[in-house]
Specification:
Elements: H1 4-25, E1 28-34, E2 38-43, H2 47-61, E3 69-72, E4 75-81, E5 84-94, E6 97-106, E7 109-110, H3 112-127
Helix pairs in contact: 2-3
Length: 129
């Protein structure tokens, strides 16, 4: 960099942009795919906000003519999405910290595409909270 002082002088002008960009995705603390195609995401939201949103999302993704099975303790949903059996688990880790796990199985094999699709749908709805 030829002019490091110029960059430092302009840094305060850009820091707000970086913060705004980080704030949009800031509620997602970590994401990973575990063995057996289990999608796990930890979010910086309280479970009391996450759980109702996840139940609503499962109802939207559920195949017509069937109902998701919802269990409030432990927070688990079993649904049928695009012919796959989907399991969604929501776990409170701490205040404003929740873990969401999504797995799917179709034709007796793990269905990574459906699990990823459902997790994406859940996170899209959570962005709106």
């Amino acid at each position: 960099m030829k002019h490091p002082l110029l960059f430092l002088a302009l840094a305060p002008l850009f820091s707000g942009c970086f913060l705004a960009a980080a704030a949009g995705a800031g509620f997602i603390l970590s994401q990973q795919v575990l063995p057996n195609d289990v999608h796990v995401t930890q979010v910086a939201l309280d479970v009391e906000k996450v759980w109702p949103s996840v139940k609503e999302t499962a109802g939207i993704w559920q195949e017509p003519g069937s109902e998701p099975t919802v269990q409030d303790f432990p927070r688990t949903i079993h649904a049928k999405v695009d012919g796959a059996k989907v399991t969604i688990e929501v776990e409170a880790i701490d205040v404003d910290r929740t873990t969401i796990r999504v797995s799917a199985e179709k034709y007796l094999t793990k269905d990574n595409a459906t699990a990823e699709q459902v997790m994406s749908g859940i996170l899209e709805r959570l962005k709106k909270l």
